[in-house]
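RESIDUES AND SHAPES:
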Amino acid sequence: MQERTSVNNPQIKAIGKLSQKKYREESGYYLIEGFHLVEEALKAKAKYREILATPPALKRLESLGLEFDQDKLIKISEGVARHLSSTKNSQDVFMTVKINQPEHFDFNYGKWVLLDDLADPGNVGTIIRTADAAGFDGVILSNRTVDLYNPKVQRSMQGSQFHLSLIKADLPEAIASLQAADIPVYASLLDPQAKQLGDFAPQAQVALIIGNEAHGVSADIAALADEKLYIPIKGRAESLNAAVAAGIMIYHFS
């Protein structure tokens, strides 16, 4: 077992840089934090480079009864844990996980959520977690949607990234692939031509497009959808939060 007690250690410095998208992309790894996420990664047999934990956190990790590679374990000081943590109340356990983004993917079956340039990490993570809970097959993120490996997205997903397919893709290409497989694609937006959600019956296969928090589904993407739908608003609110709207639609079609 290795041990690292200084934040100036080159390995610790490199791991700390994984909080930045640039270094995640360069290294091909991202950092997760907390017992639940590490446990979910181990259960899913995710590929990882190292596990870092303080002595008390290591004891707790070992008590979970999960298998992990002792050669990849690094014992760290509380100072190093504070340096690596993205939260105020760290659980002092971390893992560097390999980014799993296939270059090619066929969207030829199942239920999908498509995210059109969403900017809020909490919304993205919540939608992915909801899709996981509802039994969807995956989430397709546009190239301009917030980075999937952002620490805030990780916390919001709560390990759902290990349960379903998460694909970063060109949305027009993904939509064309879905439609070629006879999977209907529905865009959620406020539009005079849109139909109420209740007009649609649950289906075995479906793809739902969720738009940017401020601008909604872009006109170019909406034009590619088979149908436009909306959730009726009965009060005086102008609109629903993107994650809430996505949750309503996901469960309607689950």
Notes: The mean pLDDT is 94.
